[in-house]
Design goal:
24 helices; mainly alpha; 2 strands; 1% strand; two-stranded antiparallel sheet
Length: 526
């Protein structure tokens, strides 16, 4: 009976999720936005929708599973998530408006588009799209896995993991293909209401129910599990999660999150640069809720001791299923499931957009059908992640170990390139190759962290040195055998803090179809 009640609640909300996605695009078919309407919401999302959409980066299945599992196994080191996201929002205060203006001025829809335009080479956008896809697929697989676990647990074991995986794939693919970024933003509103409500409830309920309040819980942690409350956590220095790791990981991730393709999709969907600045100010407050699963994961040590390996990720849900009625289990399960659906949808959408705009559009007959091509790629990416989840799950799990650190290696080519005209294609590619190779060699040889430092930041330092060195050692970029004669105003990004927030100039550039906009469409092969 419990399984029937919980799964019925879950099923109703999943139907509502798909319905919300369809409702989000009702009446938008005639806007003529094409790929831009589908992939970046027609660049028309206001402050509220951008806030909930970008907050979705904070709350994935990791919030309910991984954060609690890290709290259970390690303790304090998991706080790096709060640190890097909060610092990343501060960096995004500058970077977000800069990328938004650049993309809007030149009619671009993603990081591959931006890189192709900056260096004047469509094939470079295609290369970055392929590389980024390799490092984004693990995130789709992780969200499929997370939602499958949630579905199986809240059904009290009556639904298998394999069926749970398929439900995750079907629900997400169903609404993102039709509704795009706008649908994800609408569903984010539902998700955030449930996340805030359920985590707020659990923050009060679990300590009260199991420990008679926070005082006894914290006293017990101090008496019995003191190591969980300080760095390097329960693993000790041997676990490699000490102060140096915490600082370097927080720094690397704070820099990387602002150019992560899904974050940039949120930036480009905004109605104005000012909306992004307001979001950068308020988004850190949303991270307060991340303390809840982290702390409750530590509380679970005393309630469900002995969880090992992947089972430790179920620490929070063990408390939920063991002590709450089935309808409540269902609602909490929905919140956790939507925390998989929304980010997974954006990952799939971003992969589709990159391929539709930067790869498949290189084929002349597909150039006029970018949106349709992107939607096909969305389904293909989901199928690949689903099949690999069933057949060779460890392959994508291993890739996930390097995905964030490898994505960081795009920082010099993208951000440095947008503010420094001298950076060349050869320099950027040489740095990227060295950075990715360094990350892969360190991580897969078991040397992450290296000397207590995040391997990704070591690779990024090598990347930057090589990119700058090769640039100075070589000659300036040439296009079609001639010097790149485009003016700096077309190639470089504006200082996002140097103006008063008037976006009219960007709007006029886009509407007037001036030289910059026209040339960018040629460079992006779109």
């Amino acid at each position: 009976m419990n399984a029937l009640v919980a799964t019925s609640v879950f099923g109703l909300f999943m139907v509502a999720t798909v319905g919300l996605g369809l409702l989000a695009v009702r009446g938008r078919a005639g806007t003529g936005g094409g790929l831009a309407e589908w992939s970046v919401g027609g660049r028309s999302l206001g402050a509220v929708f951008i806030w909930v959409l970008m907050a979705g980066e904070s709350y994935t299945s990791f919030s309910y599973l991984g954060a609690a599992g890290w709290g259970y196994n390690h303790g304090a080191p998991v706080l790096y998530v709060v640190a890097y996201m909060s610092c990343g929002y501060a960096v995004g205060y500058v970077v977000g408006p800069m990328l938004w203006r650049y993309a809007r001025r030149h009619d671009l829809v993603g990081i591959t588009d931006i890189i192709a335009h900056r260096y004047g080479r469509p094939w470079l956008g295609a290369l970055v799209a392929v590389l980024a896809t390799v490092f984004l697929l693990p995130y789709i697989q992780l969200q499929i896995t997370g939602m499958g676990v949630v579905v199986s647990v809240i059904s009290y074991g009556t639904i298998s993991l394999e069926l749970g995986y398929f439900v995750a794939f079907a629900v997400t693919t169903g609404f993102v293909v039709v509704s795009g970024l706008r649908g994800s933003a609408w569903v984010s509103v539902l998700k955030d209401v449930l996340v805030i409500g359920t985590l707020g409830f659990l923050a009060v309920y679990v300590p009260t129910h199991y420990f008679d309040g926070y005082g006894p819980l914290l006293d017990r942690l101090l008496d019995e599990k003191r190591a969980w409350l300080t760095l390097p956590g329960a693993g000790g220095e041997a676990g490699g999660l000490g102060t140096a790791w915490f600082a370097t990981t927080s720094l690397l991730n704070a820099l990387t999150v602002v150019i992560f393709p899904t974050t940039v999709a949120g930036y480009l969907g905004a109605r104005s640069a000012d909306a992004l600045r307001r979001n950068a100010i308020w988004l850190p407050a949303y991270n307060v809720l991340l303390f809840v699963p982290m702390l409750l994961g530590m509380a679970a040590i005393f309630v469900v001791p002995g969880l090992a390996g992947a089972d430790s990720n179920l620490a929070l849900f063990r408390l939920v299923v063991d002590s709450l009625p089935a309808w409540a289990v269902g609602i909490i399960g929905v919140a956790a499931a939507l925390s998989s659906v929304v980010p997974m949808a954006v990952f799939m959408l971003v992969i589709g957009t990159m391929w539709g705009r930067s790869v498949l559009s290189l084929v002349p007959r597909l150039r006029a059908r970018q949106k349709g091509a992107a939607q096909v790629v969305v389904v293909a990416a989901g199928v690949i992640a689903l099949v690999m989840t069933y057949t060779v799950p460890n392959t994508l799990v291993r890739l996930s170990l390097i995905s964030y650190e490898a994505m960081a290696q795009l920082l010099p080519m993208l951000l440095l390139g947008l503010v420094w005209r001298r950076l060349t294609v050869v320099g950027g590619l040489a740095g990227l190759a060295v950075g990715v190779a360094t990350v892969c060699s360190l991580v897969f040889s078991g040397h992450d962290p290296v000397w207590g430092i995040n391997a990704g930041i070591v690779a990024l330092a090598a990347n930057l040195v090589v990119a700058v060195g090769v640039t100075y050692a070589g000659s300036p970029d040439r296009l079609d055998g001639r010097p790149d004669g485009r003016p700096d105003a077309e190639v470089l990004a504006h200082d996002s803090l140097a103006d008063d927030g008037d976006d009219g100039g960007d709007d006029r550039d886009a509407r007037d179809g001036g030289a910059g906009a026209a040339s960018s469409r040629g460079f992006s092969a779109g």
